[in-house]
Design brief:
The complex is a heterotrimer of chains A (about 375), B (about 150) and C (about 200). Chain A is of the alpha/beta class. In chain A, about 25% of the residues lie in helices and about 30% in strands. Classes of the chains: A alpha/beta (about 375), B alpha+beta (about 150), C mainly alpha (about 200).
Amino acid sequence: MSVFVTVLSLSSLATILAALVSLADYHLNDYGVCTININGGTRTVDVNGGSSILSSLAKHKIFIPSACGGKATCGLCKVTMVDTISPVLPTEEPYLTAKEIEGGVRLACQVKVKRDLEILIPGEFLTVSQYQAKVEKITKLTYDIKKFRLRLLDPAQMEFKAGQYVQVDSKLYGAVREEVSRAYSISSAPSDRKAIELVVRLVPGGICTTFLHEHVKVGDKLTLAGPFGEFYLREGADHLIFIAGGSGLAPIRPMILDILKRKLDKKMTFFFGAVSRKDLFYVDYFRDLEARYPNFTYIPALSGAKPEDEWDGEEGLITEVVARNISDPEGKQAYLCGSPGMIDAALGTLREIGIGAEHIYYDKF
Amino acid sequence: MKQAPDFLRIEENMRTGPLAAHDFLGSDERSLAAIIYHDRLLLEQLGLTAKDFAQRMRYFSSKAGADAGPQIVDGKFAVERAEYIGRILCPFADNFQAPKAVITVVNKELGKKVVWSDLNVHLIEEHGFFEGEGAPFRIEPSFYAEVLEI
Amino acid sequence: MGNAPQINPLVIFLASLFTSNMVLVNFLGMCSFISVSSEYDTASGLGKAVALVMVFTTTINWLIYHLLVVPFGLEYLRYLVFIVVIAATVQIIEMAMDRYLPDLHVRLGIFLPLITVNCAILGISLFMVIRSYSFWQTVLFGFGSGLGWWMAIAALAAIREKMAANRLPPGLQGPAITFIITGLMALAFVGFSGIFAVM
């Protein structure tokens, strides 16, 4: 009997308290409908107050790139507040410079919408949408690089510029208890709007690359957002130099295809760097393009060719190969994609050749 | 060992998930503060500081060009640096980003090999953190000191 | 309820402020007392929050203890009941603060939820049972203890701000000197003893 009374009274006490807390949550966390004014009225959305700017905007299909999913660990989802609303939180501080704080920059995942807001975000975020896609084909390109062909389901088409990237959401697998999103360049030509291809190199310990390489199968559905990025072809040069290493080939391929398809009168030289033969891919593909189009030159180079590779092409670091082949900076643009080390080295080489920084384009990942 | 509330948040970042597909703490059951403390004692026994460690590691990774294949350094070390696209954030939430790079050094005289990532150098230098037992990028101070001849 | 000590609630109030100050005499609630006392504004904010939570939780806990726990003979479960009530109260206060005092909410940050596990808060509720205080005695006891805790942390923070520029030997910086200051403050509070009847 006493056990019964104990359990009953304790549970009713707990129930009453829980009810009180949820009642308080319902009333205190209800900020009514708030209006978020984006980029001086370019777009306004009405949201239910109480949650973060990031998730409120996502409900209206406005996606601010974020790699951690709103936990203040990546510091990517920066937005500018037109007027100060509340002090910067300790969770945001590490990711903001003093200048940014002064300019009203905040992390969208940390600022709660409590009243009408005015914010500024890069204009391209307004044209970004979220896509559902189905994995149509997975091709092994090298021992650690795979190509994924994704058929777009909803929406069924994507318009993008050659060189832009998408953010792919990973799903839970193994011991991974959180979903993250990571950026991958589109490696297929923009003329095909119904499917996109991604070239992904497996990073040791990489959370999303491991997911794509080891857990995604043909037929699986993926969520992605895009297209993002300022890395696309610009006007005003008659000789384009492309420098890539590893999976950095991905955004370069559609750029080359785009120019060939539009039959533009531009010379193109594509330098592709790898360590040894086993790191090379798409060689026959580009050799074939080179044979068919006189304005396109393909120069693969190995930095650590082994005797068994029987390599008779260019050797050395890709930057040395560039320096050997390019000397005149006149009328040239350079497009780079690769590891941070490769980009830094290539920037140095191009500077020595005399190509100005305003003619060099690359994505800062 | 009792630790500050912000360390709990950092431990969360280190778990499998937000930053990497592996756990920075590995299978270690000790707290983050305890791991750092014990490694500091280990270093003291070796007569080294975390700065010595980071400097020596940086020396090797600067000798190997990105994706340049194995290079021979000082006649007996084979050093290779593989770089990937992208950066990884430091789990201590100090807004530091390391390139995703893996450095492999083989001491040919001893016939022993060690591996680390660029982030390890920062973790050791700034936070005295060598990662937990069983983590894939655990830098065991005595073994690394032996192989790298620190 | 019937055998409450015959002490004027006002005396209990003053006693809990000075002679049996929660933190300086009973040494309860030391964690946040040491760690959040480097800035006067934040410390004072936390002090206010603790005082608020103390008044609310002791009052609610007295009612629940005498109307629910005692009639059903559940005295042995009082730790559980008190902690659950404290947790819920802190939750609600936090939400209210986020809504109406966002600046303070930001500054208290992680320490607000930690009030739940501030031992001074639970201590008050347990003292009120051991000392079998009546309702009004309890309310003023909670109020006095809360004010006392606030006063103590505000005083400590003020001292620490004053000596922020002082040159200390490295081994004494931070928590070390704070413990010494706390000890000296406690000694000073011992000087109050004998002024009021203490339970």
